[in-house]
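Subject: Protein record for review, amino acid sequence with backbone structure tokens
Why sent: The fold of this protein is of interest and is recorded here as tokens.
Notation: Tokens come from a learned vocabulary of local backbone shapes, not from coordinates.
Attached in line: The record itself begins immediately under this heading.
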Amino acid sequence: MVNDRSLEVLKAIVRDYVDSREPVGSKSIVERHAFGVSAATIRNDMALLEEEQLIVAPHTSSGRVPTDKGYRVFVNHLAEARPLSSAQRHAIETFLRPSNDLDETLGRTVRLLSQLTNQVALVQYPSMIRARIRHIELVRLSDTRLMTVLITDTARVEQRILETDVGIGDEALAELRGVVNAAAGGLLLQDVRAVLLGIPERVHPELQALAGLVVAALVEQIGANRQDRLVMAGAANLAKSEDDFAGGLFPVLEAIEEQVTLLRLFGEMQLDAVAVAASIGRENSAYLGGAAGLDATSVVAGGYTAAGGEVARLGVLGPTRMDYGSNIAAVRAVARYLSGLLGEN
């Protein structure tokens, strides 16, 4: 059975290995940490940890590295979420500023999270199942080009530019804009398709061709809003830790290209009492029905609340040899700030 000192030795091994990327031996633990015992005693503690499969000797090295199980014990019982530095807090407040464009806000969020953690950052778009249409704008760009702008109450903005052989006059466009907003304004996205498809029959015959074109674009935009998807940044950070992936980077890069895989993982992870979750190493394949592409990675995730109360996930992905305390703190802080920002909108 692992005693308290052995757990402290595990904490030291995890931290030293994360910092140095080198297997950790008893001598270096005695030199770097104030345990007040001999290297022989530390070796006995390490033997207990090895029996419990919390650490392992890689190849013929005399040092030890944490296993997935060891990282799990560390995250659950030993990791301390480090407070953000004043520079990190300032970066969050500066980089994430209010915007009515959800795409811009989430794009800024994912880039910021990647910069704070030096990992791959992921932000899930909030579900649009309860989103409502706030406004639909039709903008004349020329006699044969117009832009449709769909704005939801969750601050999502979708735009399309349309080409048409039908001449676009300002009066005709104003009339069509009024009809569209009167019919669709305030409706749930999931309910609006049938309403839009009936609009061409409700306008003057000379507007029906243009109305049909506009309706087709809006239906496409609504479909895009309802799809589950992620925005990602910092994939190049994986190259900095390439040695941590024994099977090479390709399986990891291939896995993170599959948004369905990452969305499923996000959906399976259960947030803890402090609104974060970690999936470590082979735990990922258990969530994903045996798919092994992410077996050498860890994912730290948190939840944020969008306008309208929809909850979505954000997080970071990197090697299992990551600074869990700092990453948990960054994910939690960014999630809280993003929730407040979207709530204001």
Remarks:
- The domain at 4-78 is CATH 1.10.10.10 (Arc Repressor Mutant, subunit A).
- The chain has three domains: 4-78, 86-126+228-344, 133-226.
- The CA atoms of residues 230 and 258 lie 10 Å apart.
